[in-house]
Every structure is written in structure tokens, then in C-alpha cells.
């Protein structure tokens, strides 16, 4: 009697197969909106941008649109403005990310101990990260104006800055933009590195301290090698984000004075929205995307190499 009841309650193989098929169909339908969103927002504009970059396409002269192949990319290589924008972008990225990593690591070490004071300090230093880059640029532009800026006026009065202001001087404009980026994004780097510090195994650090290792030796031999994944993560995120900087540059200098602070993304926007040269703007955007992809691939290789080294392979 018991066996017959158990066999009666057990689902048939056909019913199980039908349930699995319905389950797979349900999850496929649940992911369909996300797939459509990625295709519409990401893949389609990217494909359209690649297509436009192969044409001489100007909205002011739609009748003269014609296929040029890689002509737009070849023209960019000989264009002094584009080369200058590329150099400015590289200088901005390398300078800002290097300082942010060093300062962020110092801040993370200072806030490593988990107490109330450090938690309050961490909450305060994270305030700049919560502000959008557009607003940060507007605030620093207002502060550093030589005419009525709260800081810029006194800098100009005491001869520390150019009478026109820091953003109006070609020799100081880019450095000022780098400082603004450092002020805003160093707390994010510090937060990532602090999470890496708190994940370190305490027994290894205690054993090294018992063995008589100095703080510098622990930092060089134990802490930095174990924190390499967190360091590479911070470098990857900030390098990619800094390379496509646009908001703060647009509202502070607009790429000026001259082309002293012109970046690749800003140059692409100018070509597309000011000169309506869609083909050239698409080529510049694709060039920026290629650079970012190369940067990301390089960091992935470094992460894999660090992982193999940590596992002794």
C-alpha cells in the first residue's frame, strides 16, 4: 500500500521535462528586457557610430555624404588638434590616476583601524564622490574665477595665479583640471583600497609583527602583494573613467584656452554638435573606445599574471 501511494505521488518523467522547459522559458523571458535594453542602448549606437565613421557625413551638407572607408581615421592621425587632444587626455589620465592611487593608499592606511573616529572621517571624505562631475566643475569654476571667485580672487591679488585666473592660463589650466579630478575621485580609490586592507588575513600580519618585521617591511613584502587585486581594480576603474573625461572640462574651460585642455571626448562632442561633422566625431569616439579597450585588456592581463604569481603557477 505504501509503495503504491509513493509511486502515485511521484511526478512522471514527462511532467518533469515539461516543468523544466517552462522554467527555462520563464527565465529566458525574464532576461529578454535586459537583452533588448543592451541592444538598443549599447550595441545599436555602437554599430551606428562605426558605420558613420566610414562616411564623409556632415549634417550641414547632407547631399555630399559619401563613403570614405578609413579616411576619417587617417585624417585624425594627421590632425594636430586631435593629436593634441590625445596628448592632453593621456597626460590628464596618467597624472590624475597616479596621484589618486598614492593619496588613496595613504588615506586607506590612515583609516585602516576600525574605530568611531575613522568611520566618521571615511563618511566625510566620501562626500566629493557623491557629487556629479558637472556640479564639481561648476563649483571649482566659481571658486577659481579671478574676478569674484572666493579663492581665485586672492590668488590673483597675491600674484600666485594669472590675473585672468587658473583656468584662463594655458600653463595652469590642465593642471587645475587634474587637481579637480584628484579632489573628487581620490576618496573612491581610498575606499577600494581600504576594503582590500580590511580583507587581509590578520594572522599573517600578526606573525610578521612577532617575527620583528618593521612597518615598512610588512608594507613592501606582505601588504602590497596581497592587495594587488584591489590596486589593479582601482587603477582599472579610474584609468577608464579618467580617459573619457568630459563633464568637468566642458563646464570649466570648454577645452581652452586655445586647445590647452581639449580632450578626446570633448573634441568628439565639438565635431559632432558644433561643426555637425558626424563622420569625424564618430571616428574620434571610436578611437577613444579602442584606447579604453586596450587599457582594459592590459589590466586584465596584469590581473591574470598577478593571480598566477599569487598561486605559484
List keywords for this structure.
MetI-like fold, two-stranded antiparallel ribbon, mainly alpha, 313 residues
Structure, described:
- It holds the Pfam family BPD_transp_1.
- Residues 86-299 form the ABC transmembrane type-1 domain.
- It is a multi-pass membrane protein.
- It is found in: Cell membrane.
- Belongs to the binding-protein-dependent transport system permease family.
- With 313 residues, this protein is mainly α.
- The chain has a single domain (81-311), classed as MetI-like fold, CATH 1.10.3720.
- The protein is built from 14 helices and two strands.
- It has a two-stranded antiparallel ribbon.
- Helix 11 (228-243) packs antiparallel against helix 14.
- The protein is globular, with a radius of gyration of 27 Å.
- The N and C termini lie far apart (60 Å).
- The model has no long low-confidence stretch (mean pLDDT 86).
CATH topology assignment: MetI-like fold
One letter per element, helices H and strands E, the order comes to HHEEHHHHHHHHHHHH
The CATH architecture can be named as Orthogonal Bundle
Helix content: over 70%
The end-to-end span amounts to 60 Å
Average predicted local confidence, pLDDT: 86
Strand content: under 5%
Name of the level-1 CATH class: Mainly Alpha
Number of strands: 2
CATH homologous superfamily (4th level) name: MetI-like
Query: Which descriptor suits the 3D outline?
Result: globular
Give Rg in angstroms: 27 Å
Q: Count the helices. How many?
A: 14
> What's the arrangement of strands in the largest beta sheet?
1-2
Spans of at least 5 consecutive residues whose pLDDT stays below 50 are none
Largest sheet entry: 2 strands, antiparallel
The computed structural class is mainly alpha
